[in-house]
Write a structure and sequence with these properties.
45% helix; seven-stranded parallel beta sheet; 8 helices; 15% strand; Rossmann fold; globular; 7 strands
């Protein structure tokens, strides 16, 4: 039980990778705070799945780009479980595919808000408690797209790249309080959304370019996040870990 009695807040955790991280953390003893930002995912399904497996979870709907709602989700987590030990910045908003000249600043602002601003607000809300207890873990879920830019994802890739600087600066400032800050960066991952749109031909073509010759699973990302959330990584901070079967070699 690598996370026994730890409390983990995972943003955007009612579908896909976020839900997978929540299930893995709960299975390792963490009490998890599930978050739905808009209407995505299936909150009750994820909550009931964790509880039926013997885990403990709290579901809170909150727009994590809104400071008051972030404060409220942390208040509810503390009221139910006492504190927040682990923050996973996982939520990703919709990603419109546009060439640069077709984008507007509103497109860019949306990506910066749902990525950098959301992480900023959540970190500011939980860091005082972590600092006082001299223990904390902050993990951000990124993308290997920052190494392999797609001309249709300008704003998204830029926002995700900014998260590297954000995480590394936090790691340097808060390391003295036994708070680690790390980044997990998955490649193509077989979430339900991806499976619904991925043809066998496309998947086979992708896997032919991956050294490990398969597509990533949600559990691959969740297990990497588990490493950073646990004492196994107690002397690792400011690190960036691609989880992509060798597509990116850092």
């Amino acid at each position: 039980m690598l996370l026994k009695n730890k409390i983990a807040l995972i943003t955007g955790s009612v579908r896909g990778t976020g839900a997978g991280i929540a299930r893995v953390f709960a299975g390792e003893g963490a009490k998890v705070v599930l978050n739905q930002v808009k209407e995505e995912g299936h909150p009750q399904h994820v909550l009931e799945g964790i509880e039926s497996a013997g885990g403990q979870a709290l579901f809170v709907k909150a727009d994590i780009t809104d400071e008051a709602q972030v404060a409220d989700i942390v208040r509810q987590a503390e009221a139910r479980f006492g504190q927040v030990d682990i923050l996973v910045n996982n939520y990703a908003g919709s990603i419109p595919q546009k060439l640069f000249q077709d984008t507007t600043w509103a497109d860019w602002q949306y990506q910066l808000d749902t990525t950098v601003k959301a992480a900023f607000l959540c970190a500011q809300a939980v860091l005082p408690g972590m600092k006082a207890r001299r223990w904390g873990r902050i993990i951000s879920i990124n993308t290997i797209g920052i190494h392999q830019p797609n001309p249709n994802y300008h704003a998204y890739t830029s926002a995700k790249t900014a998260m590297l600087g954000f995480s590394r600066n936090l790691a340097v400032e808060f390391g003295q309080y036994n708070i680690t800050v790390n980044t997990v960066s998955p490649g193509l991952t077989l979430t339900q959304e991806v499976q619904d749109m991925l043809t066998q031909e496309t998947q086979a073509r992708h896997e032919s370019k991956v050294p490990l010759r398969r597509t990533g699973r949600v559990e691959d990302t969740a297990n990497a996040a588990l490493f950073f959330a646990s004492e196994l990584s107690s002397f690792v901070t400011g690190h960036y870990l691609p989880v992509c079967g060798g597509q990116v070699l850092e």
